[in-house]
Sequence to fold (529 residues):
Amino acid sequence: MNVTTSDEAQHETHVSKTKKSGLMSSGGLGFTVGSTSQKVTTETDSNQKKGSVIGSTAGDVNLTAGGSANIHGSDVIAAKDINVTGSDVSITAAENSRTDITTVESKSSGLTVSLGGTAGSLLDGMAQTAKSAKQEDDGQLAALKGMKAGLQGVQAQQAGELAGLKEGGSVADAFGVNVSYGSSSSKSTTKTQQNTASGSSLSAGDNVNLTATGKKEGSQGNLTVQGSQVDAGKNITLTAKNDINLTSATNTQTVNGKNESKGSSIGAGISTGGWNVNASVNKGNGFEKGNSQFYTDTEVNAGKQLTLNSGKDTTLTGAQVSGESVKANVGGDLTLSSQQATDKYDSKQQSGSVSGSIGSGLNTTASVNANKTEMHSDYQSVDKQTGINAGKGGFDITVGEHTQLDGAVISSTAEADKNTLDTGTLGFGDIKNKAEYKVDSQSGGFSTGGTPFEDQLMGNAAGSLLTNVNNKGKDSNTTHAAVSEGEIILRDKANQKQDIPLLRWQNLLKHHKYTQWLSLQTHNMNKLI
Fold:
């Protein structure tokens, strides 16, 4: 018997193109005659699962199979009881997938006219910086850019005064006109892939009974619930001839991006003090790579009693089960394990430029600049602890062989005399969580040429105010294994490896505080980049 999903596949392509030409602002006190264009292409492929629904508004839902009974990405709803019986029983999650590819291509070219001369160039830069400061959302960056613009204004005044001190010079020598032709292009591509679980759901007003009989030849007699939810107003009973497996479903997301840019310009300037010819080229590229994995846990919630009966092993991995009282009879091993969500991200951007000029009197200048920014982040943490959680009725758990708790809990709000764990041996372990990030931004360069007056002026320039940003942070904590106070009976003391007093009941971790810390640091990283 199969209660399953249908596929809904979809492909979309969106293309947006914009183009401008004519007279445009150059960002400072000059203007540009040219053209700009941009093309944005987005392709989306998705495959969504649409589940089935079986329901009874007034009575029971009974699903019985001679072979396996499978409910996949679907819902079963009953006003009273839900009974599912099969040689094997599987309640599983469907997987939805989506891929997005976005490509952005930009080109621009044009003839630019701007103020020249040492002072004129600084005034033009001051206008650009002041405009950028007004558009800046971040208050601190806006203040820095405003200060930079003010310094550039003072330097423009100094430039005029210095020009007048040169032999045969005048203040007018500090001003002129530059004409240049330039072109630039850039391209970036980002690919995002997502796989997300869509779990099944069983919801009953009274009771839920899931039974794996193992009667059919070749069957395993196993009961599996994966990334799904089972709820009952009264009792839930899970029974398997062999194993009970309650596990999570995995969700993944990957991001891969790359970008590149290049540009060049050539121009000439003239002032009352002489002439110059200049040229420049620049190039940049970068990448980003991220992947995350998190889980859709299985949840089993009984309003009254939760009962687990397995002939062999019972395993909970990424699962939480609860009831006002919990009773379990496990023929083999009982294993509870929590899972860590992970998120890793790396990016790198680098660029460089070379420029040079020659002027009257064969004065030459040249400069080389390079910039690099890298970011790394790594997050591993248990978001939800796997656990058997009892209410005021307590728990009564009997295990034929070994019980293992890895960052998991057996908890109860009842008095200690209502909690009993009877097992051959008992083992436990903790899980270490961490979050860390690092941002490195470096820039450097050198220049040659010029006169002593220009060296003095440019040496005092404020161009480095917004560079050399470095930041990092990290935090960690531990997800402990724990058992609520009660009676722990160890029948095979000769093979008991760990000291049980070390498994004391501990406060459950406040993971939301850890997550809030990480969210704050991620926000800070995004601002830095």
